[in-house]
Amino acid sequence: MTVPFALAACSTGSAGGGATSPTTTSMLLPSTSTTSTSLPASALAVVRAPIMVAKTGDGSVGYREVGAGPPLVLIMGYSGSMVAWEPSFVDALGRAHRVVIFDNAGISRTSALPLPLTVTAMANQTAALIEALRLGRPDVLGWSMGGMIAQALAVLHPSLVRRLVLCATLPGNGKATLPTSAAAAALRDPSKADAAALLSLLFPADQRAALDEYIGQIGTFPHFYLASAAATRAQFGALTSWLEGKEAAGREISRIVAPTLIGDGLEDQLVPVANDHQLASVIRGAQLALYPDSGHAFLFQDERPFLQLVERFLGD
Length: 316
Known about the structure:
The chain is an alpha/beta fold.
């Protein structure tokens, strides 16, 4: 199987760094490792939510939605589908928001986009979904590659993003810090990698309970699926282009005006923490929250404190 990671290996890229002039707010949060308690599938609204299809200007998009209130769009990462979100995470957000999750281009019921696929094209398809569902100016949360799509969305369609939450993601300005060669190799062709090894990249070795919780929860979705091999290859090309600074939207992330919260785990093997500092230095006024003894899936491992932070940020 493949797993949802928002980073692929690429052959070139610069070390971290960048301008430090924009004001940033950063915090180092205590490691609480508080995953949510496992719930029966019957209690998870998103698991029971039907898959719907929106007809957009960029083709069909498969999506689910839960909750009521101000709209919040969640964007999934590399090789993942909308059923790779931890259900309790989505349901918790649904207590105060109309939460929309969806499949990226070429996955399940979402139309493929012309090749070569780009992060920009996926951002435009996301914008088309927002417009088709008449969400107005939603808040947007992107994980991994989803965070790259969210950045491009905020650059290209600023009127469609109220507030931005970027989770374990990378800049597209050519200054991204790449993962270790071992992690990159596992992601280059996830279909050939050991599933347990891939999943272990999401959580630190001493956080097995969080890993088990994640696997158990996503397993409650009926008809679990991820991106096809063809869709994953297309995403790999898009990631490479983004990380090498070849997309105009990635080079212009300093133009993001939406208030931005950046979060990650300090032990993230897929997105080295230098990338979080790079983003925080470029996006004016960004807040940065880092979680000790947490990794790429910090948002699920430290679900409760992170959700509390997100709710405060979105409510400001």
